Amino acid sequence: MMRLPPFSYYAPTKLSEAAKILANEGPDAMLLAGGTDLFPNMKRGQQTPKTLIALSKIESLRSRFTDPGTTESGLILGAGLTLTDLVESNALREMYPGLWQAASVVATPLLRNTATLGGNICLDTRCTYYNQTEDWRKAINYCLKKDGETCWVATTSDTCRAVSSTDTAPALIALGARVRLVSADGDRVVEMKDLYKNDGADYLQRRADEILSEVILDPMDGWRSTYWKLRRRGSFDFPILSVAGAIRADAGGTIEEARIVLGAVSSQPLLSEEASDFLIGKKLTDEVIEETGRIMANLAKPRGNTDLTPIWRKKMVPSFVNYTLQELRGDDVRELRTRIAHQHRN
C-alpha cells in the first residue's frame, strides 16, 4: 500500500494569509486544492513537499463566481470552484460552451466534485517515465523531470518532454481568458496563453510564491466555442489529444477572429497563430476546414510517453480539428460526439 509521506499542514481562511505562509515556507511548500492529482503524486514520491497549504477554507476562492447571467458581462471564476460547480452553471454553458465541455469531461463525476478549476489549470505534466512508483523510477535511474538527468522519451534533449494534460487550459486559451496570480507582494494578471512554458519540468510561468486566485473571462458576444477530447476510455482518462476552438464571425459567416488550440501533444497547450490567421476572412467551407486540419497537424509533435502511439495521435489531429470547426460552423455533431466517446477505447 502506498502511503502519504509526513508533512506539515496549514489551512488558512484568507487568501492573504495563505500567500504569507507560502512566502515564509519557501520552495518546500505546495498548495493543496482538490488534491486529486497531488496526493497520488506524493504517494509515488513524484512530489515531496514538506508543507501543504490547503486552500479549501478560503471562501473567496470558492464563492467568487460572478454569474450575471447576461451576455453583456463576462465571468470571474474563483480558482477554488470545483469542476462540478462549472458544469452546473447555466451561464457558463450558454456563454462559454467550450470551457463547459472541457470541465464536463475531466475524469469522473466523483473526482469533478473535488477537483478544482485552479488545480486543473496548474495540473502537473504527465509522462510514462514519471508517473510510476518510486521503485520503478529508481530502476531506470529516474528521469529529467524528477531526480534524474535523462529525458527517457527524448534522450538527447536537455528539456523535459512530459505532457500537458489539462483539459480546461486549452479551452480557456481559446476563449482569451486571463488569470490573477496573488503573492504576499501583490498580484498580477496574466494571459492564459502566456501562463505555460514548453518545459515539462518547469511548465508554469507562475512563481513559487504565487497563488492562482481567479480566472477572468471577457464577454463573448458573437463568439462560438467548443472543445473536443480524445482518450482511450470515454468515461475517465486524461486527454491524449484535445482541440479547443473559438471563432467570431459576421452575419454572413465570414470569420473575423479565431483561436485554435491543441492540448496533450506538448508540454504546453499550443495556440496556433498560423491557423488562426489563416481562418480570418474566410468562411468555414469543407476546404478551409481541411486545410486548417493540415496546419494544426504540422504543429503537433506528440511523443511516446503517454497512452497509444504518437504516430496515431498525430494522424488524429486533422480529424479532431475538423470536428471542432464543423461544430463551430453550426453542424449538428451530437451523434458524432457520442460515437467518438465510444470509438477509441481499445
Topology:
Layout: E1 8-10, H1 15-25, E2 29-32, H2 38-43, E3 51-54, H3 59-63, E4 65-66, E5 75-78, H4 83-87, H5 90-95, H6 97-104, H7 109-112, H8 117-121, H9 134-139, H10 168-174, E6 178-183, E7 186-191, E8 211-217, E9 223-230, E10 241-249, E11 255-263, E12 270-271, H11 273-279, H12 286-299, H13 310-329, H14 334-343
Parallel strand pairs: 1-3, 2-3
Antiparallel strand pairs: 4-5, 5-8, 6-7, 6-8, 9-10, 10-11, 11-12
Overview of this protein structure:
- The chain has helices at 15-25, 38-43, 59-63, 83-87, 90-95, 97-104, 109-112, 117-121, 134-139, 168-174, 273-279, 286-299, 310-329, 334-343; strands spanning 8-10, 29-32, 51-54, 65-66, 75-78, 178-183, 186-191, 211-217, 223-230, 241-249, 255-263, 270-271.
- It is of the alpha+beta class.
- It has a single domain (59-121, 164-343), classed as Enolase-like, domain 1.
- α6 (97-104) runs antiparallel to α10, α11 (273-279) packs antiparallel against α12 (286-299) and α12 runs antiparallel to α13.
- It is globular, with a radius of gyration of 20 Å.
- The protein starts with 7 loop residues before the first strand and ends with a helix.
